[in-house]
Design goal:
The chain is mostly helical. Helix content is 60%, strand content 0%. The chain has one domain (10-71). It is built from three helices and no strands. The longest helix is centred in the C-terminal third of the chain and has 18 residues, at 54-71. The protein is elongated, with a radius of gyration of 21 Å.
């Protein structure tokens, strides 16, 4: 199992390091230069500028549904 966590309190970091020393968990630092995460972060920044309205979402859903069912 893999989890991604964000450490908010330095005490938690020490606890995690202790668990790693006891070989109960493995800690792997993620590379900031991961191309996938770079793209995800860019998308998240753009998405937060102007989120779509409920009306826009509904219109897109109906458009996709009509195209899907028109083929069948």
């Amino acid at each position: 199992m893999t989890y991604q966590i964000e450490i908010l309190d330095p005490k938690a970091s020490k606890i995690l390091k202790d668990l790693a020393d006891k070989q109960l968990i493995a800690i792997t630092e993620m590379s900031v230069t991961d191309p996938f995460l770079t793209v995800v972060n860019k998308l998240r920044k753009k998405a937060s500028l102007k989120p779509p309205t409920l009306e826009e979402i509904s219109k897109e859903v109906e458009s996709v549904r009509s195209k899907r069912y028109a083929k069948g």
